[in-house]
Write a structure and sequence with these properties.
mainly alpha, 16 helices
């Protein structure tokens, strides 16, 4: 139990700087930057490219930060998806700890970045804002009545701690639940039917916990799953970013749509890579 509490606190506290800086940026844009500048930033194709590269940074901090940037309409849906797909969470530390070759690390990161960019740009070109929500702008400060006009720092801290408390509670529950699921049981899913590997791997990746990326990466290192199946799980695995999405975004239908888009992309990508 002590280890579960320790891991929960460490995983959650790592998100603090990402969330805090993001809220400062959001509130600055909300109060200092005009709507026209905001629209240019949201519609920029560079957002998808930059987001895909930033997402590969270890941990899920950028994914969690991207959620808040998206619901305030500072970045596009394609950029959000690109960041989610390229997010590496604990993959990189696990690979390094197992002395994986530099070429393997670069290959996995590049595949995730390329898929993120292609899918992000494609989504932005297909899914256009409707007239009803084209200028929709969810203001966190207005929603939570934080009086940010007096102090952006205090307001950002309030938003950050509000999310962190939620993440700590849910992460603890997930960490505790994972103790009842043996690694042997999860491995059996891949042994039973290798054809369905990407489907199972993508489902495991959706678990909003760092243990998902650790397990999938370790299974690949132990030669239990294929490269394509590994990529499937790592594409859908964005850590606690999904928790932040369902906590912050009040549009449940949109959240489910985003979840399905990520899952479908992860499965299809894994199947294609396995065939190749």
């Amino acid at each position: 139990m002590l280890d579960i509490i320790k891991d929960t606190l460490i995983d959650s506290i790592k998100l603090f700087p990402f969330l805090f800086i993001t809220f400062i940026i959001i509130e600055y844009i909300e109060h200092k930057v005009g709507n026209k500048s905001n629209e240019k930033l949201k519609n920029s194709k560079f957002g998808v490219i930059i987001g895909s590269f930033l997402g590969t940074f270890p941990q899920c901090g950028f994914g969690a930060s991207a959620v808040n940037l998206y619901i305030t309409r500072i970045i596009s849906l394609g950029t959000l998806i690109a960041i989610f797909l390229s997010t590496s969470d604990e993959m990189l530390p696990v690979l390094i700890a197992n002395h994986a070759s530099f070429s393997l690390i670069v290959k996995i990161l590049l595949v995730k970045i390329i898929i993120g960019i292609i899918c992000g740009l494609l989504i932005d070109s297909i899914i256009k804002p409707t007239k009803a929500n084209k200028h929709e702008h969810y203001e966190i400060c207005e929603h939570e009545h934080c009086n940010c006009e007096h102090s952006i720092i205090k307001s950002s801290l309030k938003h950050t701690f509000s999310i962190l408390i939620f993440i700590i509670i849910i992460t603890f529950i997930l960490n505790y639940a994972m103790t009842f699921i043996s690694e042997k049981t999860l491995k059996s899913l891949f042994y039973s039917n290798s054809v369905l590997g990407p489907i199972f791997s993508s489902l495991i990746g959706l678990i909003p916990n760092c243990s998902a990326s650790v397990l999938i990466t370790q299974l690949y290192i132990d030669n239990i799953i294929s490269f394509g199946t590994t990529i499937s799980g790592l594409l859908s695995g964005s850590g606690v970013a999904l928790l932040v999405l369902f906590k912050q975004n009040k549009n449940i239908k949109e959240n489910i749509m985003i979840l399905l888009i990520i899952y479908i992309i992860a499965v299809i990508s894994g199947i294609i890579l396995n065939i190749i």
